[in-house]
Design a protein that fits this description.
This protein is α+β, with helices and mostly antiparallel strands and 151 residues long. It has a single domain, classed as Alpha-Beta Complex (Cyclic Phosphodiesterase, Chain: A), CATH 3.90.1140.10. The protein is built from 3 helices and 6 strands; from the N terminus they run αββαβαβββ. α1 packs across α2.
């Protein structure tokens, strides 16, 4: 569903409700310092690899640098609240779906390779949101807990 598509800047895991206000204040500060930007959606791929996919994603074209800067601001804002910094560099991507039973799938790997450089369009990144995700066998359901405009 298109409304489920988003750019995850940081995954927080299970968070108790009493912390949401402090997290929101930190994210509001990060958003206030960040200009809105255009984010190009380009290319297909999979984690951990196209030959053994668990997650299918669309990558970043233009706006990748801006997304990395925003992700860094989110990291900086949340670190004082006890959220560990990521060990890996931020990789801007939009999750398209998850593979229920990861296994070698030649047809899927070929489809991903065929779309590796395909442009899909541009999205205006003008808002930072705190989202709750609930995974179920029917897919993920997302609820916005708070949102702040980018400058």
């Amino acid at each position: 569903m298109p409304e489920n598509l988003h750019l995850t800047l940081k995954f927080l895991g299970n968070v108790v409700a009493t912390r949401v206000d402090a997290i929101g204040a930190a994210l509001a500060a990060a958003a206030a310092d960040t200009p809105a930007f255009d984010f190009g959606v380009e290319g297909l791929g999979a984690f951990p690899s196209p030959t053994r996919p668990r997650v299918i994603w669309a990558g970043a074209g233009g706006g990748q640098v801006e997304a990395v800067v925003l992700a860094g601001r989110v990291e900086d804002a949340l670190a004082p609240l006890g959220f560990a910094r990521e060990d890996r560099p931020f990789a801007a991507h939009i999750t398209l779906g998850r593979v229920r039973e990861p296994r070698r799938d030649t047809a899927l790997a070929e489809a991903l390779a065929a779309g590796a450089a395909r442009p899909f369009g541009v999205v205006r990144a003008g808002r930072l949101s705190l989202m709750r995700s609930e995974l179920s066998p029917r897919g993920a359901r997302y609820t916005e807990l708070g949102g702040w405009p980018l400058r």
